[in-house]
UniProtKB/TrEMBL annotation:
Protein name: SRPBCC family protein
Organism: Nocardia aurea
InterPro entries given in the database record: Polyketide_cyclase/dehydratase (IPR019587), START-like_dom_sf (IPR023393)
SUPFAM superfamilies named among the record's database cross-references: Bet v1-like
Pfam families: Polyketide_cyc2
Tree of life domain: Bacteria
Amino acid sequence: MTPTLRDRRWTVHRHIPVPPDVVWQLLTDLTAWPRWGPTVSAATFDDDAALTAGTRGAVKTLFGVSLPFVITDFVPGRRWAWTVAGIPATVHEVEPAEDGCRASMSAPLWAPAYVPVLEIALARIDRMARHRHQASRLREPPDE
């Protein structure tokens, strides 16, 4: 994955051979964040809210520091972005593509050192999405 500059952000993309909704579920499931996010050990919402624009919560880093977050941009099934501790952070996107989807993550222009973290996250999401998709296909009844 080669990072590109898009909208003044460092962006990495990855083709994942599963339907976009499988990746979207991983991107929006707080319990999955620590499994794919290398810098996240836990995340919670302030209320029993769902991930949407304006949702507030806290993300706990690997160093044990809990930081407040706010979802600043949300397009269902496509994109969400957030601020962490009041600072613009990552954008997470998924879009349909031939034979699956294209997942993207981006970091602010001032944070190029975070690009390898995004690459690791996308690789983990790829692995998790393939596993989840394969498991769901095994549970489907055979065609008659």
